[in-house]
Here is the input.
Amino acid sequence: MPRRLVTLMLLLGAASAPAAEDGALLYAQNCAACHLPDQMVVGPSLIEISKLYGKKPKEFVEWAIKPQKKRNNVIEMPSMGHLGEANLLAIREHMIRASQGLKEKKAALADPFARTPRRPEVQRIFLPNSGPAAIAVALPGDLAFCFDAGRCQLRSVWRGNFLKAWDYWKGNGKAQVVRDGEVVWEAAAEQPSPAVRFLGYTVDETGLPTFEYVRDGATFRETMTAAGKRLTRSFVVETDRPVELPVDPAAVASAGRRTQGLLRLTPAEARAFTLTLELR
Ligand code: HEC
Here is the structure.
C-alpha cells in the first residue's frame, strides 16, 4: 500500500479524529471516495459491505485495520487503523444504515476524484509543492484548493476537475496525485513561518470545511468560499495581541494595515475579517 498515505493519515488522524458517534462524517472523510452506497467504484458498495459485515463488527474492524488483497482488478485498500476501533464501528453502523433499501448499480471503475463535485469535498492527500499534510478541498462549482495543514497555509487554488488520484492509489505511492485543472492562484514560495499548530477542521451541514489552527499564539478559524473569479478567505481569530499574515498585493483585505507583504491586524480587527483573492 502507498506508504506516504499511511504517514499522512497518522499525522492527521490523531489531531482531528472526530468523536466516535459521528459515523456519517467519518465515512464521508475517510471512505466515501472509494465506497459509494449503491455502486462498486474503487471499492465495493455499502450494500455489498453490509452483506459481508452486517453481523460481523469485529471482522469489519479487523479488515479496516489490515485490509487484504481479495478482489481482482482493484487497488489495495489503505489501512484505516489510525481511526481506532470505536470510530470504525461507528462507520460500520453508518454504512449499514446508508445502504438500506438500495439496489446495486452496475460497477464503475474510474478515478473517483476526476469530476466536478456538487458539494464541498475534503480529501487528505499528498500534493506537489505542499508539505506531507495537504488537504485538498473541492468547492461547489469548479474551484478547488489545497490547504497545507503542516504549515497551516493556503497553498494553491485551481479550476477544473478535482484531483487525478487514480494512478496514485494504484501505484503503491510511486505516482503523484495531481491537481486536475488550471492553477489560478499559488502562495508565494517563501513565506514567513511562525510557530503553527494544526487543530483539525470541522464541516458545516453542506460539507464546507473550517480549518482551525494556532498561529503565533492566536487561534485561527479559516473558511474558504468561492464566487466567480474570487476566493474569499473568512477568518475568525481569538487573540490578545496584534496578528500578522502574509498577503499578496492583489488580495483585498476587509480590515488591517499592510506593510511589506504582511497584513497587520489589531485583536479587535482580527476577530472577524476577510481576505479576497482575485483569481486568474
Ligand atoms: C483508496 C480507496 C479506499 C478507501 C479510502 C477505503 N477503501 Fe475500503 N476498499 C477499497 C478496495 C479497493 C476494496 C477491495 C479490496 C479487495 O477486494 O482486494 C475495499 C474493501 C473494503 C471492504 C470489504 C472487505 C471484504 O471483505 O471484501 C470493507 C469492509 C471496507 N473496504 C471498509 C472501508 C472503510 C470502513 C473505509 C473508511 C474508513 C474504507 N474502506 C476506505 C478501497 C478503499
